[in-house]
Amino acid sequence: MQQLVTAQLHDEPPKDWISAVLKDFAESLEIVHEMHEESYRAQEEWRHEERERRKAKRERPEDET
């Protein structure tokens, strides 16, 4: 029984492996967060440009068409 417990203890992954996985996960989350922020900024920029286009279209005299 003692040999089995000792063997299981030696089969466990080292704690630095767990830290490396958590670090990779945190880096991945940071990348996803940055991508989300970039997407949000691009969407807001597009919305602003679309509002400006609609505003300019409304302000144009109709007889120019």
Structure overview:
- The longest helix is centred in the middle third of the chain and has 45 residues, at about 15-60.
- With about 60 residues, this protein is mainly alpha-helical.
- It is built from 2 helices and no strands.
- Helix content is about 85%, strand content about 0%.
- The model has no long low-confidence stretch (mean pLDDT about 85).
- It has one domain.
- Compute the number of strand runs: 0
In percent, how much strand structure appears in the residues? under 5%
Number of separate structural domains: 1
Q: Specify the number of helices.
A: 2
- Give the mean pLDDT: 84
- Portion in helices: over 70%
What is the structural class? mainly alpha
What string gives the helices and strands in order?
A: HH
